[in-house]
Design a protein that fits this description.
By secondary structure, the protein is α/β, with parallel strands linked by helices. The chain contains 21 helices and 20 strands.
């Protein structure tokens, strides 16, 4: 196994570029894929962003490119952000060989792309939809393509690009090299490999286990309404370098980022409704540290390759194990450790256990920082600032004021009163008590009433007005059920439903006795 880039059969120009980029030794996927790629072999690589796969396929691409102006290699990526990042990386690797990679994606002027293609590019990196646009306009000719790379193939499958990929592959010469990289290899990906690749060699570095092993994974039980408070407490206490916050929806991304900015945090947001110019600007600010919290949807953050992300916070629990692995893989990069935090409401424990089983990992329960923890951290920061102010001799203007107050109060009382003024707002912080946040109710509706759990939830929401996030675990038996609701909502639920006629009969609702059976 090659332990140095000098062990590969590559040109001095490419070696010099890699050295200039700061590479010292190849990553596991690079050790396995680069030699095969240089031999012209078709490759199926099981790897995800953050493992060095762009260089793994980029070196063979660049080494095979000539000095012509027509595209010789094509890289397909699921999103604009990933296409841009791949092109940037390839241009750094190909700098000394003067190999140019051009990103082609939707959201950018197609006329500008046409002009760029006319000027010439050795490698085209693009999203499937925009590549097809250029093929149909005859502004992109793939007849000279000697290598095709499908990057993050599983994500392109999830986004419905499989038909587009097959269309594009059919426009390329049959005598080509094909390299496919994917975090997972589902059946549809295997079918594409079987139909469009020639005796592919499969390389894998146990990507999930490798990424997960470098990341401390914890979860907090948090009510939906307490999530923003939990988020700010974590940020205040742990003081992350860069934090990536994942939400399910565009609306939630906007709400979370807006709240954070209102509270004085340097936060930005990206999702599919923002213009490409906005997304590029926010990502640039995040990379430079101008903002240190980035709130994003899965699709918008796909392919983000930013070093220094110390914390990934799943504000909304991922919808599947693959998404979890992709999300947490944004931290713990380049051999560094990272922290992945997931907020879980009581109803989402089953989802969490599914993720643990599928990802073959352990996510540990942790206790949220308290208001006292936050105050302690802030006071320590204030102590350091006071000492710095004293050393810089910036306190002189206030000495006369303190001397005047000292006629009535001790200097100890003056300092304590000043701190109280500074931190009185902390007392307004909502408290979070995950252990005592819910109340268990007994309801005389069960399986014999031909009702399902989802129908029971709908009935509760329709007749009481409580949100779905306020409903916890439900245990349904034949003639009755136990339902956990937030302690603050419990009296209203009892009042709204007790004695009400539902499903043709009058039901009874009351707080469950402490020793009632709660399992089927």
């Amino acid at each position: 196994m090659q332990k140095s880039f000098y062990d590969f059969s590559m040109s001095d120009e490419t070696l010099n570029s890699l050295t200039e980029m700061g590479f010292e030794e190849p990553t596991p996927i690079q050790q396995k894929a680069i030699p095969l790629g240089l031999e012209g072999r078709d490759i199926i690589g099981q790897a995800q962003t953050g493992t060095g796969k762009t260089v793994a396929f980029g070196v063979p691409l660049i080494e095979r490119c000539s000095k012509g102006k027509k595209p010789e290699a094509l890289v397909l990526a699921p999103t604009r952000e990933l296409a841009i990042q791949i092109a940037e990386e390839l241009n750094r690797v190909g700098k000394q060989k003067r190999v140019f990679a051009l990103p082609i994606y939707g959201g950018q002027s197609i006329e500008r792309q046409i002009r760029s293609l006319k000027k010439g590019a050795h490698i085209v990196v693009g999203t499937p939809g925009r590549i097809i646009d250029h093929i149909k306009r005859k502004t992109l000719n793939l007849q000279n393509i000697h290598t095709v790379v499908l990057d993050e193939a599983d994500e392109m499958l999830n986004m419905g690009f499989i038909d587009d990929i097959e269309f594009i592959l059919k426009q390329t010469p049959s005598e080509r090299q094909t390299m496919l990289f994917s975090a997972t290899i589902p059946r549809e990906i295997r079918n594409i490999a079987k139909q469009y690749m020639k005796e592919p060699v499969r390389v894998s570095v146990d990507t999930d286990r490798m990424v997960v092993s470098q990341i401390r994974q914890i979860f907090y039980e948090v009510r939906h309404t307490d999530k923003i408070t939990a988020l700010t407490r974590i940020i205040d206490v742990e003081d992350p370098e860069l934090t990536l916050v994942f939400c399910h929806t565009k609306k939630e991304v906007d709400e979370v980022s807006s709240r954070l900015k209102q509270m004085g945090y340097y936060a930005g947001a990206i999702h599919g409704d923002y213009t490409q110019a906005h997304r590029n600007r926010i990502i640039k600010q995040f990379k430079s540290g101008e903002i240190d919290i980035l709130v994003a949807t899965d699709v918008a953050a796909r392919g983000l390759d930013i070093t220094g992300v110390s914390h990934v916070i799943n504000y909304s629990i991922p919808q599947n194990p693959d998404s979890y692995i992709h999300r947490i893989g944004r931290t713990g990069r380049a051999g560094k450790s990272g922290i992945a935090i997931t907020f879980v409401t009581p109803r989402e424990y089953r989802n969490l256990k599914t993720i643990e089983r599928s990802a073959k990992t352990r996510i540990l329960r942790a206790k949220l920082p308290t208001r006292e923890d936050v105050k302690r951290v802030r006071l320590q920061e204030l102590k350091e600032e006071i000492l710095e102010t004293f050393e810089a001799d910036e306190h002189q203007d206030f000495l006369a004021f303190v001397d005047d107050l000292a006629k009535e109060l001790s200097t100890r009382d003056i300092a304590a009163a000043a701190l109280s003024l500074l931190y009185s707002s902390d007392d307004e912080d909502d408290d979070i008590d995950s252990e005592q946040e819910s109340t268990r109710l007994f309801i005389t509706l069960g399986r014999k009433d031909n009702i399902t759990v989802s129908e029971l939830i709908r009935l509760l929401r329709e007749h009481t007005g409580i949100s779905g996030s306020s409903i916890g675990q439900i245990s349904m038996l034949d003639t009755f059920s136990f339902v956990e609701v937030s302690a603050s909502d419990a009296p209203n639920v009892v009042k709204a439903l007790n004695g009400k006629a539902l499903r043709g009969r009058r039901i009874k609702v009351e707080q469950a006795r402490p020793h009632s059976i709660s399992r089927n």
